[in-house]
Amino acid sequence: MPTSLHRPTATGPDSLAPRAARRPCLEGDGTRSRTPGPQQGRVHQSGSGWSPVYVEENLGVMSVGFLLSSPDDAVIWRGPKKNGLIKQFLRDVDWGEVDYLIVDTPPGTSDEHLSVVQYLSATHVDGAVIITTPQEVALQDVRKEINFCHKVKLPIIGVVENMSGFICPKCKKESQIFPPTTGGAEKMCQNLNVSLLGKVPLDPRIGECCDKGQSFLSEAPESPATSSYRDIIQRIQEYCDQHHLPEEKII
Ligand SMILES: [Zn+2]
Fold first, then answer.
1. How far is the centre of ligand 1, averaged over its atoms, from the C-alpha of 226 (Å)?
2. Is the pTM value of this prediction over 0.85?
3. What is the side-by-side order of every strand in the sheet holding 127-132?
4. Which residues surround ligand 1, an ion (CB under 5 A)?
5. All domains of the chain, ordered by start, with CATH?
C-alpha cells in the first residue's frame, strides 16, 4: 500500500495510473475535502459497507466531503472522532479488489499521518509519495515529513516537486513562480538521499480540471505537466512492482 504525504497539489488522485489499474483513493484529510468532481450524498451504504464513489470505471473515491450535506460545511472533527473516521474509511468501505490504494493526506505530520500508518501497519504499505513546491518554506515542512517517515519506518517512494515553473500558454516562456532559492526538491533529495520522482510545471488547466472533476491527463495530453505526471506515475508503478509483496499493494 503506498500512502502519500501530501502538500497541496492540484492534481489529486486521478493522476496515478493511466493503466487500467483499479485505484481507489481515500481522502485521509479529516479537516477538509479537496476531492473535486464527485458531489455530496453519493455514498451508498450496503451490507458490505460504504460504497466508494466511482468517478471513472477504475477510480473509486471516498472522502469526508461526500458525507457532508453541503459543500461549504466545515469539518472540525478532532482527535478520536477524526481517527475513528479514518479507521472507518479503511475498514468499512467496500473497496472491492484493487491494485492501488492511495491515501491522500494533509500537509505536515499530524494525527492523520500517524493514524493511517498505525492502522495500516499490519498490511504492507509500499511507501509514501511526498509532494512539495520548490521554495524553501515548503521544503522545511517536507524535511520534517521525511523525518517522520523514517521514524515510523514508512518507506519513501520519492518526492514530487509541484508548481515547478510556469510555462506561459501564450508565449511559451518559462518563469519561476516559487523560485527554488535553496536548490528546490532536487538539492533536498540529494542531501537526504531520497528519490526525486519528477517536477510538475504549473498549468492553469490543472486547477480548471480539478474544479470540473475532469482528468487533466485526458483534457491536456500535450501539456508538459502531463508528460511529467506520466513519468512520475511510471516511476511509482516501477517502485511498487519491485517492492510489493505478491498479495497487496497500497499507495
Ligand atoms: Zn507569456
1. 20
2. no
3. 53-56, 59-62, 25-27, 102-105, 2-5, 127-132, 156-161, 196-199
4. 168, 170-171
5. 2-243 (3.40.50.300)
